[in-house]
Amino acid sequence: MFHYRQKESNDVVSKTADASYEIRLDDTMLPPTSGSVIGVALNNKALAKSLEQVFNEKPHVQPPKTPVLHIKTDNTHIGYANSIKVPSDKGAIYAGPSLGIVIGKKATRVDASNALDFVAGFTVVNEVSLAETSFYRPAVKAKCRDTFCPIGPWTVDKETVRKPNNLSIKTFVNDALVHETNTDQLIYSVEEVISYISSFMTLEAGDIIIAGTPERTPDLEIKPGDSVMIDIEGVGRLVNPVEQE
Amino acid sequence: MKSARILFNNETLAVTVNEQDQVVTQQGKILEEGSFTWLPPCEGKMFVLAINYADHAAELSFAAPEEPLVFLKSKNSLIGHDQKTYRPDNIDYMHYECELVVVIGKEAKNVSKEDAMDYVGGYTVGNDYAIRDYLENYYRPNLRVKSRDTCTPIGPYIIDAKDIKDPHNLMLRTYINGELKQEGNTKDLVFNIPHLIAYLSDIMTLTPGDMIFTGTPEGLADVKPGDVVITEVEGVGILKNTIISESEYLNNLNN
Fold first, then answer.
1. Which CATH architecture has domain B1-39?
2. Tag placement on chain A: N or C end, fewer CB within 10 Å?
């Protein structure tokens, strides 16, 4: 089953479909839920490896001991086919392909062993960001600009995603494949991330966790006029145009 | 006017608070204290300023920052007036932070400092608890320090902006079990309210109900289960909170 939300005149309508082709994909699509969106930064093996030296220098001094979390505020959330609006004077802007974990019921202090019981399903997230020069202070300026978090097009039931920790993630810019990764590159697995966050933050149905984004290499840079598509095996394809803010 | 949200007979009600600090329903009925539960008076994005009082910066051995140092909180951490916050077992240092909270009243994007005060809907009191044991040098202060369940008491109510003549000259005080522990004044803000609204609205769109916790002055101290913590902003409100142990919190969760 596919769960999604759409604008109809001035209303927000929640819908389900048995097959994805039944869904009319256009810019009336909204993010599939309206919950809080929490991201896990630095949760990628190659990215952490590339920062090994930086992690051991000031101001970080030592590598992170726990998953590094951040918040994508509600002004950043947009649906399928809605435009990512990028500023002209803030340097390069990068796509951030990631699996989105959609919480299905209230989760407080959940063990990794049964974490998937608290998951409704999965979605695709594009965690757009400016370049980060340091990870010392919260990334509000880099990550919380309006439209910087496309989510969708839908939530697919977890039952149809058998191996959430082994899903291919492909990023296309203007139909050219520019980047490939896989959820097997996460340092903390889907289950571990849910367990860690819920150890001190109660997650509610509809909350979304951005499992982890790869290193923002030049391949992932997006510019006005581009169309960026993130395709996650068995989950969906999220497409958004990029325009000047 | 003072507006609040409460839970009464399992229903969430928008209410007002009168001159005698009594809660009045939209039907004009006065509710007895104790017959309802205070909820956070607003919902929205939560911005918190770190090191926004020069004296507090010195206390933490930091130079005051050159631009506002903002972090975000998640709504799971919010609780209303007269509620309980738990202290994790096996930690050394959990402290309160008394803060003036600016509540946004209308949508704001690219607002100038000159116009910024027009976007303030009202003010309330926030207590931004932190568990210092969990600090790491990544996105500092991280969510485990600052965004924990029950760790952000706010309220009791929002007082309209027009009822506060000068938000940049308000005393802040924190009492633990009746003893004055923290004292400061919003005149010592490093970045004042117009500066913060201009800064944030340059990054993103602010919407009604968004909260800006403007930072805390010096005078931090550890709190322990059983402590009653009162944070007060002159003319804005008096926010009460009680610390409980993690085991008591977990017992309450399971019942």
1. Roll (2.30)
2. N
In the structure encoding, which two tokens stand for residue B242, read together?
A: 């009680």
**Phi and psi based region of residue B88 (left: phi greater than 0; alpha: psi -120 to 50; beta: remaining):** beta
Cis before A59? omega within 30: yes
When computed from its CA atoms, the radius of gyration of chain A, rounded to whole angstroms, is 17
- Give residue-wise pLDDT tens across range B147-193: 999 999 999 999 999 999 999 999 999 999 999 999 999 999 999 99
| Helix (DSSP H) and strand (DSSP E) numbers for chain B | 4, 19
What is the chain B residue with the closest CA to A144?
Answer: B204
DSSP secondary-structure letter at B51? S
* Pair A121, A157: CB distance under 8 Å: yes
**What residues of chain A lie within 8 A of the CB of B74, using their CB?**
36, 38, 71, 201
* b/e sequence A193-209, b meaning 16+ C-beta within 10 Å: bbbbbbbbbbbbebbbb
Nearest CA to A116 out of A133, A101, A126 is that of A101
Chains A & B: contacts with CB separation below 8 Å:
94
Residue A11 lies in a domain: no
- pLDDT tens profile B9-50: 999 999 999 999 999 999 999 999 999 999 999 999 999 999
Local confidence band at A114 (pLDDT 50, 70, 90 cut-offs): very high
Tally the domains of chain A: 1
**Closest alpha carbon to A60 in A131, A3, A133, A167:** A133
Residue B103 and residue B117 in contact, taking contact as beta carbons nearer than 8 Å: no
Per CATH, is B40-254 categorized as 3.40.50.2000?
A: no
Q: What is the DSSP string of B55-74?
A: HHHHHTT-PPPSS-EEEEE-
Interchain pair A59, B142: CB under 8 A: no
Chain B residues with CB under 8 Å of A208 CB are: none
A56 within a domain of the structure (yes/no): yes
Residues of chain B found within 8 Å of residue A135, distances taken between Cβ atoms: 138-139
From the centroid of its chain, how far is CA B181? Answer: 17
**Which CATH number does the domain housing residue A67 bear?**
3.90.850.10
Partner-chain contact A75 B205, CB within 8 Å? yes
Does residue A10 fall inside a structural domain? no
| Domain assignment of residue A197, yes or no | yes
Query: With contact defined as beta carbons under 8 Å apart, do B232 and B172 qualify?
Result: yes
